[in-house]
Amino acid sequence: MVKNIWSAEQIRAAAGYASMASLDRRQALAGALGAAAGAFLGPLVPGSISPARAATGGDLKIMAWEGFTLDAELKAWREKNNVKVDAAIISTQDDVHSKFVGGSAVRLDLAEYSQGFEKFYADELKIIKPIDIAKVPNFNPDQIYPQFYQAPTWYWDKTYFAIPWVWGLNALVYNPKMTKPITSYKDLLAPEMKGKLTFCDDTIATWPMIARIAGYGPKFPNLTKDEFKKSFAALGPYRDQCRVFASSNGDTISLFASGEIAACFSVWSGTPVETAKRGVETVYAVPAEGAVMWCDAWFTPISAENLDTAYAFMNEAVSAKPQAEVCKAVNGGSVNKHASALMDKATRDLFDYSNLPEVFKKSPLQGQPPRTSDTYATYDEWTQAWADFKASF
Q1: Integer Cα distance of 179 and 391 in angstroms
Q2: DSSP run (H or E) holding 164
Q3: How far apart are CA 119 and CA 70, in angstroms?
Q4: Which of 98, 111, 170, 387 lies 20 to 30 angstroms, CA to CA, from 346?
Q5: 3 state SS of 295
Q6: pLDDT 10s digits, 130-167
Q7: pTM of the model
Q8: Which domains does the chain have, with CATH numbers?
């Protein structure tokens, strides 16, 4: 990954860079899952490893996406330890680092970052405290899938800067009553799909796939300016198949429910669950070209005060039972090897846990385009091209 270079002035403009992380998968959960504000933390889940240092109680201030606060999943643990959690909800990733830019840092004991923000947070803004991995004993090779254990998204220089805890895939979703099974993105170009395709305004889900269909998938996010131009040019035939553009995941769900679309180019894996609530069957499919992976990680900000409780919270977050429960709630994937055995079939079948190396091979965890570069297309250039594409609808 190309290291982003930021000046003090550019840091103040970081909100534009971070808005890419306004993931629609979370927005679709709004209202369906309650925030954890005012809940009480506290008991260790049976079968988990006791933390190296017990939770000491008191207030735990966290910042997480809607539905990702582990309110229900860690209820018993919270009550036993008698800790009060004050949860602020993330709408976009810039909500997090804005707490540390332009003045005194706001106290946060735990917060989440999405892939692509790790070096920005740790090396440039310097708002992350390194993790003492001994205090998160459940995060060990016997319990955690190797793909998540020491990946560079949260581990470098022999140091952990965050703890990955939930992930998922964005890929094709289609209505089987309106189209034959879709096994490749090329199937979206069939004549019978004319006017039945849409794109969702989720850049994390869409940008890597734009590069992939043009033949530059492994190079994303570092495409040369020529490769970048060719990638957007390759969207032309897909644009011709569209009648409308979906402004959010919720909009995509509504378009499926009304029968206006038969497929969405790349969207949240939980979309079929939401369309089913409206009486419409849709199918989530990982085509031959693969899917786009996302992963969230907990980190301890520089302003953290209740570190013992923060470590204990992270320790429980990656234990098997809470992992199984939260994955069902958010249609996510587990980092814990033993969680899938505790899942219901629908949650377990979302991803191929028996062959995660192949999942990562087809859908690697990738970052974001560089903010500045003399060689590669920058984030601003991607943003402008995406804006032009949306304006064409």
Answers
A1: 27
A2: strand 163-174
A3: 26
A4: 111
A5: strand
A6: 999 999 999 999 999 999 999 999 999 999 999 999 99
A7: 0.78
A8: 8-166+295-354 (3.40.190.10), 169-292+370-391 (3.40.190.10)
